[in-house]
Amino acid sequence: MKNPGMKIPGSSKKPVTMALFPLLFLALAILAGCGGPRTESPPREDQEQYATTVEVITLAPSPLRDYLDIPAEISPASQVEVFADVAGELLDLPVQEGDRVTRDQLLARIDPSRAGQRFSLSSITAPISGTVVELPFQAGSRINLQTPVARIATTDDLELTTRIPERYISRIDRDTPVEVRLDALPEEVFSARISRMSPLADPESRTIGATLVFLKGDRRIRPGFFARTRIILEEQPRALVVPQDAVIRHHREGTYVFVVDDENTAYQRPVSLGIEIDGLAELRQGVSEGERVIIRGQNRVSDGTPVRLLEENLR
Q1: What CA–CA distance (Å, rounded) separates 39 from 252?
Q2: Which residues form the Multidrug resistance protein MdtA-like barrel-sandwich hybrid domain (predicted)?
Q3: Structure confidence by residue, pLDDT tens digits, 78-137
Q4: How many CA within 13 A on the CB side of residue 241?
């Protein structure tokens, strides 16, 4: 039986927590000696590895034009119909369609004689110089009084008739350059100018009639030819141009492109646009000659994104 008053040697114990302190200090010392993880910037090689690949162009001045293409028909500036002044038989036609005639040249003769009555022949002459464009009757035909027997046109003086959409009228005047292409002469481009425009607009088509004239005559051009006219609305001889897809339009941030600096970092740049035509856009303000603009991959970068250049073009 144990005596409650007696002390047994070695039976007293220290708290467990106090006993673990030396072990904790030892562990911390080991960790301090080995060193913890360090936060360092990745090397430049790693930055390039994770950079966004883009394609850029280097801005260089180039000519750019805004224009309007519309069809037109070629017709004589003036033409006349020649009428018979008597009724009778058309005896002969000394001319053919396409012949060039001069004023007072003989075109036809009509015999007004009737059964039992003989009359002198009636001669029909050209009232103007030009080209015979139509002879509706043949020799032997019966001609009534005031029937047109020929049509003569001044083919050296041709006009082009067309209709211009009303939204372009404020940008067009008589000094506006016009280029003309003909299906009949596909390798050539002719110059023309606007001669007159109608004071009235067609309320249905919202167009205005216009007449153009060639700056230089060419006998190969004939009335009735189909023409394709190009009205030059604006010309910029030294425009900074990018593909339209390179321009980003945002309802809050406005219109901008991404430029790449010498460190191959992309930065957002607000721009003002000029001419937009044929998939191209003129950057009128916001960039300078020699800067590099992203034209592919611009939707995958943001301000400050490192980039890798896939290919560099000159524009």
Answers
A1: 37
A2: 79-145
A3: 889 999 888 888 988 899 998 999 999 999 999 887 655 667 788 999 999 988 989 999
A4: 19
Rounded (10°) CA dihedral 123, 106, 138, 90:
10
Q: How far is the C-alpha of 163 from the C-alpha of 198, rounded, in Å?
A: 9
Location of structure tokens 């050539």: 188
Cα dist. 283→57, 242, 294 in Å? 13, 7, 13
Q: Please give the single-letter amino acid code of residue 10.
A: G
On the 0-12 / 13-18 / 19+ scale of CB atoms within 10 A, 56 is buried
For residues 142 and 11, give the distance between their C-alpha atoms in angstroms, rounded to a whole number. 154
The pLDDT tens digits for 283-312 are 999 999 999 999 999 999 999 999 999 865
Q: CB atoms < 10 A from the CB of 153, how many?
A: 21
Quote the domain boundaries for residue 195: 67-75+156-237
User: Residue 271: which of 254, 286, 293, 252 has the closest Cα?
Assistant: 286
Q: Which range has the top average pLDDT, 18-22, 112-116, 157-161?
A: 157-161
- Residues 112 and 253 occupy one common structural domain: no
Q: Are strands 307-314 and 52-58 parallel, antiparallel or unpaired?
A: parallel
- Rg of the chain over Cα atoms, rounded to whole angstroms, equals 45
147 and 90 in a single domain? The answer is: yes
Q: How far apart are CA 48 and CA 37, in angstroms?
A: 24
Kind of pairing, strands 226-239 and 178-182?
antiparallel
